[in-house]
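User: I'm writing a tutorial on reading structure tokens. Could you give me a worked example: one chain, its sequence, then its tokens, then a sentence or two explaining what the tokens reveal?
Assistant: Sure. Here is the example chain.
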Amino acid sequence: MTPLRKPRYRVDLSHLQAVCEANYLRLCRMMPGMSVQDEVSIIVDADDGQQQRLIMRVLERCRYTTTLQLIHERRQDWLAPPSMEIRLYHDAGMAEVVAAYNRRRFRGVYPYPNEQMLQPDEKTQLNTFLGEWLGYCQRYGQSAHPVVINP
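And here are its predicted structure tokens:
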């Protein structure tokens, strides 16, 4: 009797593109002046009563792309807050995580197990997490400067 093999993971490209498109729209709404503005800070009230900040900083502007650094600041020394670099592709209307947790250039699929213990769908998970993180900040955050949201 042969052991059953787990089917190999395949990237759901249409799902990943939809996540990246939604993240692009969220980022454009949260930082509408991204073409001229270098940084935006959003204060988020946490459940424990402490305030946290999401800092969105432009690292690079090119004709068709913008690279942002997202830093989540909070007052807990025991846990490093998430930090990511996101590349926005303006011609395609998509945003993709290009760096997170001191790693760059995520592949679409990883063999599992691997030395870094990355999940087979690590790239999709990072972009989905970005969407959840931005959605939370949109719902519960307050910007020091007015943010205009166009429907």
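What the tokens reveal: Residues 122-140 form the longest helix (19 residues). The beta strands are 39-45, 51-61, 65-73, 83-89, 94-100, 103-104, 141-143.
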